[in-house]
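Box 4.2: Ligand-aware structure prediction
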Amino acid sequence: MDFKELGSTGVKLPEIGLGTWNYRGGVEPLRKAIELGANLIDTAELYGTEDVVGEAVKGRRDKVFVATKVSANHLRHAEVLRAAEQSLKKLGMDYIDLYQVHWPDLAVPIAETMGAMEQLVDAGKVRFIGVSNFYLKNLREAEAAMKKHRIVSNQVKYSLACRGIEEDMLSYCQSNGITVIAYSPLDKGALVAKSLFKQRAARAVLERIAVETGKTAAQVALNWCISKPSVIAIPKTDKVERVVEACQASGWRLSREQAAALDRAFQ
Ligand SMILES: NC(=O)c1ccc[n+]([C@@H]2O[C@H](COP(=O)([O-])OP(=O)(O)OC[C@H]3O[C@@H](n4cnc5c(N)ncnc54)[C@H](OP(=O)(O)O)[C@@H]3O)[C@@H](O)[C@H]2O)c1
């Protein structure tokens, strides 16, 4: 497993972590990920998986980087503080490594939300502050509202099939010490499920490169994501063998030609 710095914090995160939205796998796949070095686990108050994450991490807290999120309907100051307490309780932990604002809520002043996030860091309940699903305008406003801490990450949808962040967000994050946490990096499984995938020609390129590299299509799709500077990916799987497969998406690189061929095929 290769690692990348979280923002400019000095903390190293694995290029591949595990997401837990719609996760039904129990503790074993999460423990396998931790064992293999994919020790970033992403959850959210909305997912209903904070308890299983807590269970999986029990006895290994110092080895795991736990990311969770406050929901968009809890962004008033007191609501953020309350949501964090509830997440800590469900996780069975006394601190959260990365606390993320799940979606912006334009009805709540961003300074109010970020003030509460900073208070949580000052209280030792949160190590780092992140956001999720923020457009560039939202991100810059949130950054401007920070008084003493920094926003270290933006968790956004990014995969071969979903390239919206390449317009401006990706380069902004790369230039400003913000990690992009790519969610749905397999396009919710559609990139690798033959029955679901419609772009035949693009799929053929993915499969050709899988053969060339001796990797699976999922590993090629994940490697394409993490080959971009400042990007790490958090696929979700309920299956131990797919955790192993996802972990082996790191530790090697597509050639420049292969990455460019994928860029073109899925444009
Ligand atoms: N911040 C946000 O708003 C937001 C939104 C969406 C997601 N997320 C985060 O990102 C994580 C991942 O995104 P996602 O769950 O939407 O999609 P994803 O990781 O792109 O795809 C997950 C799907 O792909 C399947 N899969 C996983 N590995 C596979 C493999 N090697 N071969 C074939 N199929 C495979 C999984 O099935 P099995 O489980 O059966 O393996 C599951 O159905 C979430 O769990 C969550 O933590 C965040």
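In the box above, the bound molecule is NAP. Residues 19-22, 42, 102, 132-133, 155, 183-189, 192, 218, 234-239, 242, 245 surround NAP (CB under 6 Å).
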